[in-house]
Design a protein that fits this description.
The chain has one domain: Uracil-DNA glycosylase-like domain (Uracil-DNA Glycosylase, subunit E). About 35% of the residues lie in helices and about 15% in strands. It has helices at about 20-30, 60-65, 75-85, 120-140, 150-160, 190-195, 200-215; strands at about 45, 50-55, 90, 100, 105-110, 145-150, 175, 180-185.
């Protein structure tokens, strides 16, 4: 499995499961026919021990380029931090053909299609959760999951059949959930960094701790 191969655990290009997202996708295709405008597949190392769980594709980021966190502000911080800790190699050029490769990690969004205003509904999260469950099964070496924000954290717990109340999200929190260790961080969005809710060093502390934990597992 290559780093960008669309596999059987990904939704089809014209996935019909969420009517609101389908309508938004079709409007984007009409306005920007040269964009990806489809569900965004996982990206990363097929032998990864770390899964980074995001929320959903950004309209002008992954929805445009077809690769998670590629082409928007959040991707700059994310990929620079992964490069810093040896979880990526190459240069992040904000385009899917920049040659960047992930090492020992894979990125998987909780919702595969771009939602209006970057806000999927609870029903859309539940509907798409089957693909997150399948992704966890498809990456059998994953033992560490970094959740980018509360919604992604809750979606991961849903995919594991766990109650949200048992593992409450908090930046910097670490949860042992069955075979997995979950590391919580605020989402690396422009809003969070501009308001200083999340600084680059806060984000790096979580990514670094998660990388260290995965490597200690052998």
């Amino acid at each position: 499995m290559s780093q960008r191969q669309v596999s059987s655990f990904e939704p089809p290009r014209d996935c019909p499961r969420c009517p609101r997202l389908v309508a938004f996708r079709e409007a984007a295709r009409a306005a920007h026919p040269d964009w990806h405008n489809a569900p965004v597949a996982n990206f990363g190392d097929p032998d990864a021990r770390i899964m980074i769980a995001g929320l959903a594709p950004g309209l002008r980021g992954a929805n445009r380029t077809g690769r998670p966190f590629t082409g928007d502000y959040a991707g700059v911080l994310l990929y620079e931090t992964l490069l810093r800790f040896g979880l990526a190699e190459g240069t992040y050029g904000e385009r899917p053909d920049d040659g960047l490769r992930l090492r020992d990690c894979v990125i998987s969004n909780s919702v595969r299609c771009v939602p209006p205003e970057n806000k999927p509904t609870p029903l859309e999260i539940r509907t798409c959760n089957r693909f997150q469950q399948a992704s966890l099964a498809a990456y059998p070496n994953v033992r560490v999951i970094i959740t980018l924000g509360r919604i992604a954290h809750d979606a991961v717990l849903m995919s594991l059949g766990e109650k949200k109340s048992a593992y409450k999200f908090a930046h910097g929190a670490v949860h042992d959930v069955g075979r997995y260790t979950l590391f919580n961080t605020y989402h690396c969005s422009r809003y969070n960094t501009q308001t200083n809710r999340l600084t680059a060093e806060m984000f790096a502390a979580v990514i670094g701790a998660a990388a260290e934990r995965a490597r200690s597992m052998g």
